Amino acid sequence: MGVAKTLSGMSNLITGIAEMRNKVGSGHGTPTAPKGIQESHVLLVIDSAHTITRFVTSRLNELFA
Predict the structure, then answer these.
(1) Alpha-carbon span 4 to 6, nearest angstrom
(2) Helices in the chain by DSSP H: which ranges?
(3) CA–CA separation, 10 vs 64, rounded Å?
(4) pTM of the complete model beyond 0.90
């Protein structure tokens, strides 16, 4: 079903966001982003995280409303 494939893709997005955060984020003591990180990369991560959060929140509201 399409939903299962979409959720699998979201799982890959979450992994990718975590890997990017670990590699270029300031949470591990890196004060500046490494060269090569462009605004488009940042927007991709932010927009992906926003989409995932909206889905999870919406789903929880459906289940527990």
Answers:
(1) 5
(2) 2-24, 39-64
(3) 22
(4) no
